[in-house]
Specification:
515 residues, alpha+beta, BirA Bifunctional Protein, domain 2, Herpes Virus-1, Rossmann fold, 3 domains, seven-stranded mixed β-sheet, 18 helices, globular
């Protein structure tokens, strides 16, 4: 087993052990690809959501937020194309009886070839040291070029098959690449079939012929059907955006990789309405703006990259993903799409209502174009958790597991720890807790040795620990311990509030975004 697989397993078990994520309905043996957020997970999730909302809505005068219902009139999904086009190509292995997404099988095969290229590059790096020119090596090394040609040929063929909706060709690619089922090890594949991902349910109050409604597979349509409501009541002028966070539901057959792909998940989406013809300018603007948002968290360079779509969705004229390097490789974290006037145009057609903007500068009405930014909150949570998790050997020979969560996102911002449970220390610690709890999520803890308590706080990612000891009662100072460096300093109680705020304040990151 590779070390990355070990690492990912450790992250999953850590998430459960420390109250971040539990399997849904675990006492009934769980429900596949559905998860619950525990006490620390709920706080971290809320903080990520707040960071997104504040940077998107609070910091932009021309972006407002809404909260649309999960249930929508069924014609919404006909207009959006989800009834006819929201499908995954699925293939079964006849021996293992397991079902797979055909596109994922091919993408995983390509990823293995990419892995071989990376191995060659790493070997060369070690061999040549500081004089190594990676770009030149990738474009001149015969073996690397051969691997790259294979990847390009597969991608070109795969893209053509997807665009022609030629499922026989998709199956043929799987056969030609000699892709085997990971469980049975055989190449005994069925035909490739399309499978719609929407969950449907019945509602009695809708007219008889339309009693089937859907759980929304994305939050974007709630924004589009409310376009005029928001524009008129908010007196919004183009360009302007509407943002929303909320649950979406997809009947994923290949749900895997923990919370990366789930059947019930949360999205953070913003639809930016613009004048037709300006979409490329705004598409590039939002690409850069969103990448800046991710980088402001201080993750290492090289953890994020842009990936242009091989096949554009039916509504897009340009699309790319911001990918993050999870323990299982680079995968999509956020999508930026130029959706043209597809959505508003179709809703206009299906509803019979005019969904146009009167532009006073041009003295004419038009259906606006849209640039979308869409990020999975659960995926963002997993990215933060994956990046934060570290197993360390300390100078004294002991080990610790620490979550280096960016302080502004940490579930608990500081822990207040009386050294003992007597001599007036708990009372003094409570005084400090009562001063801090109005601004920050704090934890008071007096059980176990101070060392064990520090370890527990490291494990849930608490940036600062405040220890109250006997000296505190005489000199009104406490020990402030930093999670990352483990350094301790003596500070007056009067300075504690400001020091905690300096450490965990989200405003620093928001200012860095330069909105």
């Amino acid at each position: 087993m590779s070390t990355t697989e070990d690492l990912f397993k450790n992250i999953i078990s850590h998430a459960k052990e420390y109250g971040f994520i539990f399997q849904s309905s675990e006492i009934y043996d769980g429900l596949s690809a559905v998860y619950d957020y525990g006490q620390n997970g709920a706080e971290l999730k809320k903080n990520i959501r707040d960071y997104w909302w504040k940077s998107m809505v609070q910091m932009n005068e021309n972006i407002v937020g809404i909260d649309a219902a999960i249930f929508m009139h069924p014609t919404t999904w006909k207009a959006s194309g989800h009834v006819d086009a929201f499908n995954d190509p699925l293939v079964d292995n006849k021996d293992s009886k397991k079902r797979y997404r055909a596109d994922v099988l091919i993408e995983d095969h390509v990823a293995k070839i990419e892995g071989k290229i990376n191995k060659e590059v790493e070997k060369a790096k070690t061999r040549f040291g500081d004089s190594f020119d990676e770009q030149q090596y990738r474009s001149t090394n015969a073996r690397v070029m051969e691997y790259q040609q294979k990847i390009d040929a597969i991608n070109t063929r795969f893209k053509a098959a997807l665009e022609a909706n030629d499922l026989n060709e998709v199956r043929q690619i799987i056969l030609d690449l000699e892709i085997v089922c990971p469980i049975s090890g055989t190449r005994n594949w069925t035909e490739v079939r399309q499978f719609n991902l929407m969950f449907s349910t019945q509602v009695g109050s809708v007219s008889e012929e339309a009693s089937t409604i859907y759980l929304r597979p994305e939050t974007a349509q709630g924004i589009f059907v409310n376009f005029l409501n928001v524009q008129k009541t908010g007196r919004m002028k183009i360009p302007f955006g509407i943002a929303q966070t909320g649950k979406a539901f997809r009947n994923e057959i290949v749900a895997r990789q923990f919370i990366f792909r789930m059947r019930e998940f949360e999205q953070m989406e913003m639809q930016f309405f613009i004048k037709p013809g300006t979409e490329m300018e705004w598409y590039h603007h939002w690409k850069e703006t969103r990448m800046k948002w991710h980088r402001a968290l201080g993750f290492p360079d090289g953890k994020h990259r842009f990936h242009d779509h091989l096949k554009l969705a039916h509504y897009a004229n340009a699309a790319c993903d911001i990918e993050f390097e999870f323990p299982f490789g680079f995968k999509e974290l956020e999508g930026i799409h130029s959706r043209t006037d597809f959505d508003l145009g179709n809703h206009e057609k299906f509803s019979g209502k005019k969904l146009q903007y009167f532009d006073p500068e041009l003295n004419q009405s038009y259906v606006p174009y849209v640039v979308e930014t869409s990020i999975g909150l659960d995926r963002m949570f997993l990215a933060v958790l994956s990046q934060a998790y570290a197993e360390e050997k300390l100078d004294d020979g002991t080990d610790r597991v620490v979550l280096r969560i960016p302080p502004m996102l940490a579930p608990i911002k500081c822990a207040i720890l009386p050294l003992t449970k007597k001599d007036g220390l708990p009372e003094k610690a409570r005084e400090i807790m009562d001063r801090l709890k109005f601004d920050h999520a704090c934890m008071y803890e007096e059980k176990d040795s101070i060392g064990k308590r520090y370890r527990r706080m490291d494990a849930i990612g608490t940036p600062l620990c405040i220890t109250v000891d006997h000296e505190t009662l005489t000199d009104n100072s406490v020990t402030l311990r930093d999670r990352d460096t483990m350094q301790q300093e003596r500070v007056p109680i009067d300075r504690v509030e400001q020091l905690v705020m300096d450490k965990v304040d989200m405003r620093k990151a928001l200012r860095a975004l330069g909105n």
